[in-house]
Amino acid sequence: MNNHSNTVSISHFSDVLCIWAYIAQIRIDKLKAEFESKIILNYHFCPVFGAIDVLMEKNWGHRGGIEAYNKHVLSIASKFPHVEVSSDVWLTNRPTTSISAHVVLKAIQLLEDAEKNLPGFEHFLWEMRLAFFRDALDISNYNVLIELADKSGFPVDKIDEKIRSGAAYAALEIDAQLKSEYRVIGSPTLIFNEGRQILYGNVGYRVIEANVRELLNQPEHQASWC
């Protein structure tokens, strides 16, 4: 395996409601533009916001509640002008969970694997994040999710079939198993080199790029120096 034939597989874990994953998408887009076919991105989901009422009471109940969290998210977003965040985020149409959105996303991934000429999973993932952060929509609501999918050009009947059959839930369970295997602690997390390299949180583009270049340039069978 030489430098020209190398590809780097990256496992991308995130929660669709995570402000840091929303902010970091620009770095993923730049990575794809710079390395093109030399990287393979595999998207997985971890439910940081799986039970929002419980999470907010535990982490923000003593700090001002959901109103304080709204101000926290807006403060973070103000430092990154490339993202749009509604002043009503987390206040208006507050979701109850991110899991329902993740199930729909897994259904779309399954469809994309089986069919051609679909709009694209990555496009819809971004549209879903925009729907929440920019438009303050409740993306835990199945009707909202299906309307978004329909507007994006996805066959909603086939999405529904993947969910009703249990296939989308099974795919989400595989994500949960991988999360445990790689010891993912939050969103966003990038896993390289079969779990040997992990980048978690608000990591700058140059750090991500350096990890990719290292793996592209290293000789074959150098997983360990031991």
List strands and helices in order, with pairings.
Blueprint: E1 8-14, H1 19-35, E2 39-45, H2 52-60, H3 65-77, H4 99-114, H5 121-133, H6 142-151, H7 156-164, H8 167-182, E3 189-192, E4 197-200, H9 205-217
Parallel strand pairs: 1-2
Antiparallel strand pairs: 1-3, 3-4
Helix pairs in contact: 2-3, 4-5, 4-7, 4-8
Structural commentary:
The chain is 51% helix and 10% strand. Helix 4 crosses helix 7. It has a 4-stranded mixed sheet, sandwiched between helices. It has 9 helices and 4 strands. With 226 residues, it is of the alpha+beta class. Helix 1 links the parallel strand 1 and strand 2. The protein is globular and about 50 Å long.
Index terms:
226 residues, alpha+beta, single chain, 9 helices
**Alpha plus pi helix count:** 9
Distance between the ends: 21 Å
- What's the helical proportion of residues? 40-55%
The run of helices and strands is: EHEHHHHHHHEEH
The beta-strand count equals 4
Shape: globular
Taking strands numbered 1, 2, ... along the chain, how are they ordered across the largest sheet?
2-1-3-4
Query: Oligomeric status of the shown chains?
Result: single chain
Mean pLDDT: 93
Q: What is the SS-derived class?
A: alpha+beta
Rg over CA atoms:
18 Å
Largest sheet: 4 strands, mixed
Low-confidence stretches: none
Beta-strand content: 5-15%
What's this entry about, in short?
With about 230 residues, the protein is an alpha+beta fold. It is about 50% helix and about 10% strand.
